[in-house]
Each structure stands twice: as structure tokens, then as C-alpha cells.
Design brief:
Order of helices and strands: HEEEHEHEHHEHEHEEEHEHHHHH
Bound molecules: nicotinamide-adenine-dinucleotide
Oligomer: single chain
Largest sheet: 6 strands, parallel
Number of helices: 13
Low-confidence stretches: none
Radius of gyration: 20 Å
InterPro entries: Aminoacid_DH-like_N_sf, Glu/Leu/Phe/Val/Trp_DH, Glu/Leu/Phe/Val/Trp_DH_C, Glu/Leu/Phe/Val/Trp_DH_dimer, Glu/Phe/Leu/Val/Trp_DH_bac/arc, NAD(P)-bd_dom_sf
Shape: globular
CATH architecture of the largest domain: 3-Layer(aba) Sandwich
Strand order of the largest sheet: 8-7-6-9-10-11
Strand content: 15-25%
Distance between the termini: 36 Å
Number of strands: 11
CATH topology of the largest domain: Rossmann fold
Organism: Salinimicrobium catena
CATH superfamily of the largest domain: NAD(P)-binding Rossmann-like Domain
Active site: 94
Family: Belongs to the Glu/Leu/Phe/Val dehydrogenases family.
Helix content: 40-55%
Domain Glutamate/phenylalanine/leucine/valine/L-tryptophan dehydrogenase C-terminal: 158-365
Mean pLDDT: 94
Length: 365
């Protein structure tokens, strides 16, 4: 049987890992199970040509183990290209813990997860992602040195989210320069979907610049708090994707640009922090281009966090972190212009730069 003659669900049964639609020549996929703590985790190592596979751990109440596997495969692949396009000597990896971070996360579970990370001898280095806090990484640090994103008083670079937000802000400004001829966001309406660690900080930058900020979240309490603090308007419409705004900033979860939403966008720029914003990178990247919607590739503009944690490994300080993150503006503008000149999607343009860097390194060996 070949991939062509099997439908997705049948393929999953026939080849549960290598046959996953999101499997993209990943080097290693590790399933971690511990009965005592209830840990069920999957570590995905996509590529280590440029360096150790670094990427955060996400704790999420997945509907099924298939969803968790699919997520870790997609996310770890994204990390490979994020580090490559950003010029870091890191490979791509990610981990998912299946469960509710609010009710099922315990220090014992995090330590056990850390032991699994340690068993990979540094091939995978973890950090925080959705459902994780700096304090959780401190707990993991008790059992392995292969963790970043630990707190500043423990020698880490601290919470990466504000740096991620700053990079997204830089990428958004570059997209504005490309689309509107000016990077100035004053008066532009921006809908930030998801006002968590990154989203809130992005709202802060945008409000200070005089953008008209709309916010959307499933957490009503946060909506009220962020609205009050920054003067942002809570989006009340029925269709967040069809909102009449200049810029849509997805900062919650991925795949919000999909077959169902793509024809509804009125925004002329999509620039946000969420990983894997395009449900289908190729197809939706091309459709956005045809529609004249400028998409600032997620893995390019949300690299501030990885720049921040990379500092822990390379030993550089805040100044260099901010300089590297600010440079996301230049890289984004370059890639948007390059995509335009070559008639390809912005996603493809960014991917090509990343893939070339990996191929060059491989050839040097
Ligand atoms: N934290 C980082 O440094 C970093 C780095 C790179 C990428 N990212 C990505 O950015 C996104 C946000 O990360 P974060 O650290 O702010 O996460 P977070 O968990 O702090 O915030 C996510 C927010 O999205 C909200 N949300 C969830 N589902 C939603 C929905 N359907 N509609 C509206 N809101 C919804 C949640 O209530 C929460 O407020 C994630 O996709 C993450 O992978 C984060």
C-alpha cells in the first residue's frame, strides 16, 4: 500500500508514526509514560543538523493521542525552520504533555518529564510553551541541565514571552512597511486573538504606539483585566476571523488560517505569535498571497523567545537578545520583498532561506 491510496485515518492505523501526515523525516519521536505521576508525553526531534533540538513543552488536554502526536510533529518541524531562518545554531524539537495544566501538573510530573529529557543526553533541550511557566522549567532543572527558560535568579534568561512579543511587534511593523509603505502602526486597527503571556505584551506595544487594539480570548477574566489596563476594546462580534480590522494577530493556538476561515479575513496583514498559523502551509500560503493579504510567517516573527533562551546556552546578555530580536524587522522585510519578487508565498520564501541554511551546513560536513 502506498500513501496515495490510503486516506488519512486509514494511514494512521497502517503506519501510526511514520505514516502521520505531519511526519516530515523527523529524526526521533519519544513516547514517555510514567504510571506513578500520570505523565504521558511525546518528545519530537525533527532535525539536529544545525545543533541540539531546542523547543518548548506544551501541556494541553488533547482530544486524542493522535492530536498530541500530530501537534508535536508539526511543532518540532516548525522549530527547525524557526532557528534556521533566525540564524541560530539549533535544531528543531518540541514536547507535548497530555493533560490539563491547571489540574494535572505537579512538581513530581515535571521532574519525571525532566528525567525523560535527560535520558536524551542533550539531543533535545526543553523550554516553556503553552501551559508552562518559568517555575516549571526550574523544577525540570532539578533533574537535568537540558532545559532553558529558567528563572533569572537561577541563572536563566527569564520569561521569554515579552521578547517573543517584541519580535512579533517588529515583524508586524515590517509587514506594515511592506503593505502600507510605513511601519507606523498608529491608527491601525489590530485584533489580538489570545491575550496570554505573549498577547498581553503585544497589546502593550501596540497601545503605546497608538494602534486601535481589539482583543479576543476565551478567558473572560483576562479580557476584562487587559482591556482595563491598556484601554483595548473587547471584540464583541460573532466572527473573529471576519473582523473589520487592518491586522489580525493570532496569539492563541495554531491553524486559525484554514479552509473555513480563509475567505472571511478582511485584514490586510496577518502577523502573530501562534505557531503553525496556516493549517496547510502550501495551500493557505498561496491563497493569502492571491488575496493580497500579507502574511508575516509565524516561525520567522515569533523567534524572540528562542533567541532569549538561546542566550542561556551561548552566554550572551539582554542587549544582544534585544538586538537580535529587533533584527526580525529586517529579516521579515527582506523575506516579504523576496516572496514578492519571486511570485511565491511568504511562507515558502522563509522556508527556502531556512532549508538552504540546513543544506549548506550538511554539505560542509
Ligand atoms: N511564549 C512564547 O515565548 C512563545 C514563543 C513562540 C510562540 N509562542 C506561541 O504563541 C502562542 C501564545 O503563547 P503564550 O505563551 O502567550 O500562551 P498562553 O497560554 O499564555 O496564552 C494563550 C491565550 O490564548 C487564549 N486562547 C486559547 N484558545 C483561544 C481561542 N480559541 N480564542 C481566543 N483565545 C484563546 C488563552 O485563554 C490564553 O489567554 C502559542 O501558540 C505559542 O505556541 C509563544
Amino acid at each position: 500500500m502506498t500513501v496515495d491510496v490510503l486516506k488519512a485515518n486509514e494511514l494512521k492505523k497502517a503506519a501510526p508514526v511514520f505514516g502521520q501526515l505531519s511526519f516530515d523525516d523527523h529524526e526521533q519521536v519519544v513516547f514517555c509514560n510514567d504510571k506513578d505521576t500520570g505523565l504521558k508525553a511525546i518528545i519530537g526531534i525533527h532535525n539536529t543538523v544545525l545543533g541540539p533540538a531546542l523547543g518548548g513543552t506544551r501541556m494541553w488536554n488533547y482530544n486524542s493521542e493522535w492530536d498530541a502526536l500530530n501537534d508535536v510533529l508539526r511543532l518540532s518541524r516548525g522549530m527547525t525552520f524557526k532557528s534556521a531562518v533566525t540564524g541560530l545554531n539549533l535544531g528543531g524539537g518540541k514536547a507535548v504533555i497530555i493533560g490539563d495544566a491547571k489540574t494535572q501538573k505537579t512538581p513530581e510530573l515535571m521532574r519525571k518529564f525532566g528525567e525523560f529529557v535527560h535520558s536524551l543526553s542533550g539531543k533535545y533541550i526543553t523550554a516553556e510553551d503553552v501551559g508552562m511557566e518559568t517555575a516549571d522549567m526550574d523544577t525540570v532543572r532539578e533533574v537535568t541541565p537540558y532545559v532553558t527558560g529558567i528563572s533569572e535568579d537561577k541563572g536563566g534568561a527569564g520569561n521569554p514571552s515579552p521578547i517573543t512579543a517584541y519580535g512579533v511587534y517588529m515583524g508586524m511593523k515590517a509587514a506594515a512597511k511592506f503593505k502600507y509603505g510605513s511601519e507606523n502602526l498608529e491608527g491601525k486597527s489590530v485584533l489580538v486573538q489570545g491575550i496570554g503571556h505573549v498577547g498581553e505584551s503585544l497589546v502593550d506595544h501596540l497601545s503605546k504606539e497608538g494602534a486601535k487594539v481589539l482583543i479576543s480570548d476565551i478567558n473572560e477574566e483576562r479580557l476584562q483585566q487587559v482591556s482595563k489596563q491598556y484601554g483595548a476594546v473587547i471584540f464583541e462580534g460573532a466572527d473573529v476571523y471576519g473582523a473589520n480590522v487592518d491586522i489580525y494577530a493570532p496569539c492563541a493556538l495554531g491553524a486559525t488560517v484554514n479552509d473555513d476561515t480563509i475567505d472571511r479575513f478582511k485584514a490586510s496583514i496577518i502577523a502573530g505569535a501562534a505557531n503553525n498559523q496556516l493549517a496547510d502551509d502550501t495551500k493557505h500560503g498561496i491563497i493569502l498571497r492571491e488575496k493580497g493579504i500579507v502574511y508575516a510567517p509565524d516561525f520567522l516573527i515569533n523567534a524572540g523567545g528562542i533567541i532569549n533562551v538561546y542566550a542561556e546556552l551561548e552566554g550572551y546578555g539582554k542587549k544582544e537578545i534585544m538586538e537580535k530580536t529587533e533584527n526580525i524587522y529586517n529579516t521579515t522585510l527582506e523575506i516579504l520583498n523576496n516572496a514578492d519578487a519571486n511570485g511565491i508565498s511568504t511562507h515558502e520564501a522563509a522556508l527556502k532561506v531556512a532549508q538552504q541554511r540546513i543544506a549548506d551546513r550538511k554539505n560542509q560536513r
